[in-house]
Design a protein that fits this description.
219 residues; alpha/beta; seven-stranded mixed beta sheet; three-stranded antiparallel beta sheet; 32% helix; 31% strand
Amino acid sequence: MRDEELAARQREHWRRTYADHPGMYGDEPSAPGRYAAAVFRAAGARRVLELGAGHGRDALFLAREGFAVHATDFSPTGLDQLAGDAAALGPAGSVTTHVHDVRDRLPLADDAVDGVFAHMLLCMALTTGELVRLVSEIGRVLRPGGTFVYTVRHTGDAHHGTGVAHGDGIFEHGGFAVHFFDRALVDALAEGWRLDEVHAFEEGELPRRLWRVTQTLPG
């Protein structure tokens, strides 16, 4: 299957998923979201970009923690849920949303944000070439000295190598296509950055096995 066909199928799959299961991840922020907030706060960040925000549990948490959040996702259904919840925050937080596919240029100016967060976005159905371009774009919109925190499922995950193989480390299981990372890919995406930490953890049922990666753009 060509990359654009898989991408189109995944967009539709996520649209249906969010429509059928509103608030599917609950209201509580993820553990990586809490970690990212602490990292951003320690670095003096104020403006944060979340990629793949979904229905917004982490974006809303970051806003409640005092950050100005720009949240993107390729699912307008998920972002509609996020925007509705963000409106209820009032002056307690600031969230703007933008429907966006990370295969395209990020809709922000150079040096626009102090921190970038992406929980399991990079391990979606993105080829290695698309990931390299995305991380370059993240470096463009992130100010020098800013921090990028992301999580990905890795090759030690039980679903790696199962389901439908699409090549380039991407396997589709239960309708969800995942790019399982090996350590070489993590290191490649950190070229030109300072790689601060690669932390292994587990989440959810199965359980999913992930890495939480923290890297900083040189000042």
